């Protein structure tokens, strides 16, 4: 049954969609609410009523940081608790849009209202821009009750917030759900509400010929609470590099969460296929299955920010929480 939207919050964080030209180039600009209302008067068909909020400072999403994920999640929760909003449309730059969609999928895991993210490849008002079609298309998807949980709307398509990646930088169909193998859907334990208590530091280490113990030790020394390894193929790596494996073991003993995903666009971690995979598992890595980098990073961040301990983070990381691992 479709749920009507009566109190929609449009949360503007910056990004290309509302940028205007400056002496230094395109920059996020305030005053987007007036532009949006003026354009809506030209739109055909009904749209939900909405209120508007700018999240300060407005950002080019290339400047997005994990602390901004917490700021956005807090703003969404405030919209529900204080303003009784029943949906949120979040306007965001495209460079890190998939990362924010994934992080919010976990940070808002317990929230029952739909949260939809969108942005644009060209600023609103530019000739041939996709800004208004994306924005009003997102509003109509919300109004029609098509949005569930955290999703992304782009180029006329609804996408899963914790499965999407930006695959192109020069076309309107820039986003897609990566074709990764996923676990069969199964009854799962009920996950905890991941209410942030503090920021968390998660570091991604892509494997490449030449990576070694020095890189692992440097990242651990930087304060990393979790190390996400982007492994080869089905979850393999230099298991015959004794110092590298020992550095991983040492990090794990220190309480650093070690997790693995595949660096292949269609990859899936299965440590049992190759000895070089089981070697990583034995060093303390847990499998992210077919999760994308964006999903695995956001999931680790949310689990650690909620104050879960090492064993709890490992437990929940390997389980499907919002469809990021299961079809």
UniProtKB/TrEMBL annotation:
GO terms for molecular function: asparaginase activity. It is an enzyme of class 3 (hydrolase). GO terms for cellular component: cytosol. Its EC number is 3.5.1.1. Transmembrane segments: none annotated. The active site is at 16, 16 (o-isoaspartyl threonine intermediate), 94. Residues 7-187 form the L-asparaginase N-terminal domain. InterPro entries: Asp/glu_Ase-like_sf, Asparaginase/glutaminase-like, Asparaginase/glutaminase_AS1, Asparaginase/glutaminase_AS2, Asparaginase_C, L-asparaginase_C, L-asparaginase_I, L-asparaginase_N. Keywords: Hydrolase. Residues 201-317 form the Asparaginase/glutaminase C-terminal domain. Substrate binds at residues 61, 94-95. GO terms for biological process: aspartate family amino acid metabolic process. PANTHER family: 60 KDA LYSOPHOSPHOLIPASE, L-ASPARAGINASE. Belongs to the asparaginase 1 family. This is asparaginase. It comes from Stutzerimonas kunmingensis. The lineage of its organism: Bacteria, Pseudomonadati, Pseudomonadota, Gammaproteobacteria, Pseudomonadales.
